[in-house]
Amino acid sequence: MLSAFVEGIMPGLRSLRPPLFAGVLWGLFAWVLLANQFPSPDEATGWIAQAYSVLDAVGVAGIAVVVGVGAFLIGVAALALTDPIANLVGRFGKKVGEVRDWQFWVRSRRKQLELQRRDATSAIEKIDSGAGGPRSNRAFEEQKLKATEASHVYFSGFLGRLRRIYTPQSKAAVAAVGKRRSTELTAEGAVIQRITSEAFDGAVLKDGMSRSQDPFFRGASASPDTVAALHSELGSDALDSLRVLDEKLFLELDRERSERLVRLAVSFPIIAFGILLGVLFNPAIGVVVGLAGLILLFRYSADQSEERGRILNLLVLRGAATTPAMRSAVLQGELRYRELKAEYDEEREDERRKAEEAEIASNGASRAPTEPQVSTARSVRGD
């Protein structure tokens, strides 16, 4: 009973840590920055003297309570300002990753097209000289050469050399190198695709079929309405859904989220301390402390941006994906398979019927020349 009570209050207690830790560090930063600006109790006048009197009256315990409440309020205010910055940093890091992946893909694709252009040019020269196969192959090689022309023009000249260093994700670049076939899905989109794909595959396997073995089923995908329903349902905080579906997993992920939020909360005051130490004491120490804060910020901002996909993936892996839209996706996958299976059976029946008709026609054509001979033999016997 005690453990259940502790588990029940732990999420609430964990939520207090980020603002409290951030408030303590920001308060310490303000004290280091402004401590010399306040007079001593003997020299204080006005409201500062009254504050010293109040602190003397409440004692150590009262001071601890005041400091704790003040640190918490400062932390809440600070997080209200820094959380949007952390989210922006996370999105920026994700965008940097996408740009990096695009640059690597473009570089690989450009080299592929350059190799194709050299091979096609060499093959055409050999054909023209009479040492490269039949003349009929020249049109095919010219077509391969033409497919590389846009890339060759785009990466030629002075601007082309600059584009080799950095290729922007523009329409001209896509026209030159083509569109990526496997664009990276968002974490949420990847899980949705997995749910719908597994639902369809499950229906295929129940019927003894295989999507990989038969090309008819390879291009099958979920209906747009199913995907839209899943997107709409998963639009809220996935951890809230997890509380209802799997309490144990919720507690584990809530603890991880709390640890991440604590690190994000303290990253900003650590960066501020680094700047202060660099200005007032030692630049080298300031750089080290500031870099530590920046590493915490970028590291856990990226984790925060991927939290949804991880939670949804764990829901699917643990078999807890029983929300209405997910159940609907399973049903829609089965119905979609039935529709395609009916089309599949109809096409196979048409092929079988056409094959039988062709066989009958072929047999009839092979027997046709022998019929006059048989009739002639019968007429002779009749005579």
Architecture overview:
- The chain is an all-alpha fold.
- It has a domain of 177 residues.
- 81% of the residues lie in helices and 0% in strands.
- Helix 8 packs antiparallel against helix 13.
- It is elongated, with a radius of gyration of 36 Å.
- The C terminus is likely disordered.
Q: Helix-strand pattern, N to C?
A: HHHHHHHHHHHHHH
How far is the N terminus from the C terminus?
A: 113 Å
Helix content: over 70%
- SSE-based structural type: mainly alpha
Rounded mean pLDDT score: 77
Low-confidence stretches: 373-383
Q: Name the shape in a single word.
A: elongated
Q: Could you tell me the number of beta strands?
A: 0
What is the radius of gyration computed over CA atoms, rounded to a whole number of angstroms?
36 Å
Number of alpha- plus pi-helical segments: 14
Taking the sheet with the most strands, its summary is:
none
Q: What share of the residues does DSSP label as strand, in percent?
A: under 5%
Give a topology summary.
Elements: H1 2-34, H2 47-129, H3 137-147, H4 149-154, H5 157-165, H6 171-177, H7 187-206, H8 224-233, H9 238-245, H10 247-280, H11 283-305, H12 307-317, H13 324-367, H14 371-382
Helix pairs in contact: 1-2, 1-10, 2-3, 2-11, 7-8, 7-12, 7-13, 8-13, 9-10, 9-12, 10-11
Question: What key phrases describe this protein's structure?
Answer:
single chain; 383 residues; mainly alpha; 81% helix; elongated; disordered C terminus
Describe the structure concisely for a colleague:
Helices cover 81% and strands 0% of the residues.
